[in-house]
Specification:
It contains 10 helices and 34 strands. By secondary structure, the protein is α+β, with helices and mostly antiparallel strands. The strands form 6 sheets. It has an 8-stranded mixed β-sheet with strand order 2-1-6-5-4-7-10-11, with no helix packed on it. Strands 8, 9, 13, 14, 15, 18, 19 and 22 form an 8-stranded mixed β-sheet that branches. A 7-stranded mixed β-barrel has the order 23-24-25-26-27-29-28.
Length: 681
């Protein structure tokens, strides 16, 4: 029995010795197979067992487990004592550290014989007795089979005891948590980095206990529990191939469900098994012995897990599914992220594809993958791009080869939506006004030339722009200050561009339009022969108050670079020959100015000289994705026309990448000849 003697000197009032008895009787309950593993203070139940290490003729009755998991005090322990009067005192360790019996000593004022007292562990300096926080998120286990981390999460409490004979209070501590004791036979030797246990329901990761009545109230939930592993290496021999883990959880009723267990090694390979569940009660350790197999669907990418309430489908681009949960598991699990958010569909043509793109919005700004924090993020599906590289190439050119103020950044991820694998996505930055994105101030204006603008959008037309100008941000209304400023400025720019004196540097188009952004936006879209970039849709412009109108940021290249999929335009759109963006009214006029043409030639030749960098970047990204596209193709059949053979998929993928590189090379050569041959008309 674990006893705690609590001595308290009550200054100015009385001397009172408080004796805390932590009565943790040793009992055991076994659901399927009796075991002899005795865990101090916890009941035992064996729930789900594979006979992995032992002959089938041997039962676990014959296994002499060590009585090794003992909850003992150490010198870093402190407990909190609260009275019904609202006074809290911290009692640090006194003597006998490292044993079941110890003494806590402290000093307090204001205690009295009429109060009821409650005690909790570990002490965290919480003064509201009705809201003692209990946090169980990502745990860390140092060493295979180690249980030294349990004490940090072994929340205990005893409530509403009164002073008895000889000024002594006896507390009977109750454990407030459950422990999952999991032994998994691994198929491969190696170092292992973390374990993720997922449920279709939710674990409680943060809760509050009231020391007035012992009520436990969840405050944060997640479908995942994560255990980081440090210094855990599995041998290849039979007895050494078992990974042993102790995971602390809040009590939760998961009766009838299945837990999905994923174990990741240091190379981010994934191994899986499942575990049966029940009503996990406080004060009980649940034993599992399972066999893991390699998960061939795991690509090694960061995993984005999204769960909507009651697994409701995401069917709208306009209305968010609120109170959804997103969890991101990175290779470095220390960057694990779990938070509530809202999610909806996004895109135009891409929203009609089987593999859907999504928009995500948080209540507060968040940062992912070392990118500047923001509330709004997107998941690009790239369904029409067999290489999954076209957006990535354009964004690389924008970030590394252009002078554009800002270009979005993206990270490839695996997406799990409501428990179902959705394939490889790009997770990254939405185009919007923000200090870390389109940084034009709160009163700046972000415009999109968009033939697909909705009736509810605030738009205006300009004489020589082929489609409507849509005010994307900030929120505007017709005839308000934002609307009038943007409309009048773009109209003035249009008028100057098509005036007789349009080449005049003080009164012509350069008074209104930023040359460098118009040149670099043009070149990236012309090199890509981006179908939408003829001022059709997804053509962004930004206007800072007191500044010039700039093109950008670049956006939407999944059917560019010779990847336009639909007839009858495909033969023209995918041809390496021919100017494309240059044929818009604004750019045709700009090319009549020798100053603009000279800058285009100068910048193109600089990019042309770095064309091998683009091809090298494609090679690197294709090599990175080549083993990962297999599962995406298995789901969507975008590469191999029904053939799921891994070698066939990889071969076909590299063929598509080779076609992409050949197209870019040929396109660059055609533009090199024809741009440098242009003269201002």
């Amino acid at each position: 029995m674990k006893k705690c003697v609590l001595k308290s000197v009550i200054l100015l009032i009385m001397y009172m010795g408080l004796v805390v008895s932590c009565d943790q009787g040793i009992t055991q309950e076994n659901i399927e197979t009796p075991i002899k593993n005795v865990i101090y203070g916890f009941k035992n139940e064996t729930i789900d067992e594979d006979f992995f290490m032992f002959p089938q003729s041997t039962t676990t009755d014959n296994i002499d487990f060590e009585e090794k998991l003992q909850i003992t005090w150490n010198l870093t322990n402190s407990i909190g004592v609260l009275s019904s009067m609202g006074i809290q005192v911290a009692y640090p360790m006194g003597t006998s550290a490292g044993t079941e019996d110890t003494t806590f000593e402290g000093f307090a004022t204001g205690l009295n014989l009429g109060s009821e007292y409650s005690v909790y562990y570990p002490y965290i300096g919480q003064y509201d007795r009705t809201k003692i926080p209990m946090l169980i998120s990502t745990q860390v286990q140092n060493g295979n089979g180690s249980f030294s981390h349990i004490g940090k999460y072994d929340y205990m409490a005893a409530v509403n005891s009164v002073i008895g004979d000889n000024n002594v209070i006896v507390f009977n501590f109750n454990h407030l948590v459950s422990i999952l004791h999991v032994q998994i036979q691994m198929p491969k030797a190696g170092k292992y980095s973390y374990v993720a246990i997922e449920t279709s329901d939710k674990f409680t990761t943060e809760a509050e206990i009231s020391l007035t009545d012992g009520t436990l109230t969840p405050t944060k939930q997640s479908p995942l529990q994560i255990m980081r592993l440090e210094n855990v290496e599995i041998d290849s021999n039979e007895e050494g191939s078992v990974l042993e883990m102790y995971m602390v959880i809040h009590p939760v009723d998961l009766t009838g469900q299945v837990l999905y267990v994923k174990v990741y090694d240091e190379d981010n390979n994934c191994y899986t098994t499942t575990m049966q569940t029940k009503n996990f009660e406080a004060g009980t350790i649940y034993n599992f012995r399972k066999i893991a197999v390699e998960d061939l669907t795991h690509t090694g990418l960061p995993v984005t897990i999204i769960n909507t309430p009651n697994n409701v489908d995401i069917v709208s681009k306009d209305d968010y599914v609120e109170n959804s949960l997103i969890t991101i598991l990175q290779t470095d699990i220390s960057d694990e992220f779990c938070e509530w958010m809202n999610i909806k569909g996004r895109g135009n043509t891409t929203w009609e594809a089987p593999k859907k793109p999504y928009a995500i919005k948080f209540d507060k700004k968040k940062s992912f993958f070392s990118l500047p924090e923001d509330k709004s993020w997107v998941l690009l599906a790239n369904f029409f791009d067999k290489t999954l590289l076209r957006n990535e190439i354009a964004f690389y050119m924008g970030n590394e080869l252009s002078t554009l103020d800002w270009t979005p950044h993206y990270q490839y991820v695996d997406l799990m939506l409501n428990g179902q694998y959705q394939g490889i996505y790009q997770f990254g930055e939405k185009v919007k006004i923000s200090k870390g994105r389109v940084n034009i101030g709160d009163d700046g204006v972000l415009l999109e030339i968009d033939t697909k603008a909705a009736e509810t959008d605030v738009t205006f037309s300009v004489s020589h722009i082929e489609n409507l100008c849509n005010i994307k941000e900030p929120d505007a209304e017709y005839d308000d200050d934002t609307y009038n400023y943007a409309k009048s400025f773009v109209e003035a720019a249009d008028e100057a561009l098509f005036s007789e004196a349009f080449m005049d540097t003080e009164h012509g188009w350069q008074k209104y339009l930023d040359m460098d952004s118009f040149v670099d936006w043009y070149l990236i879209n012309e090199i890509a022969k981006n179908y939408d970039a003829v001022f059709l849709t997804s053509c962004y412009m930004n206007l800072k108050r007191g500044g010039k109108l700039k093109m950008g940021p670049i956006w939407d290249f999944d059917i560019a670079f010779g990847g336009y999929p639909w007839d009858p335009q495909a033969s023209i759109a995918n041809a390496v020959e021919g100017f494309h963006v240059k044929n818009t009214l604004w750019y045709s006029r700009l090319f009549e100015d020798p100053a603009f043409l000279a800058r285009v030639k100068e910048r193109f030749n600089e990019i042309y000289a770095k064309r091998q960098k683009i091809l090298d970047y494609i090679d690197a990204k294709a090599m990175f994705l080549s083993g990962k596209v297999v599962e995406d193709n298995r789901l969507w059949d975008t590469i191999s026309n029904g053939d799921s053979d891994v070698s066939v998929v990889k071969t076909e993928y590299h063929n598509y990448v080779s076609d992409l590189k050949n197209w870019i090379t040929a396109r660059m050569e055609w533009l090199n000849t024809n741009i440098n041959a242009l003269t201002a008309q």
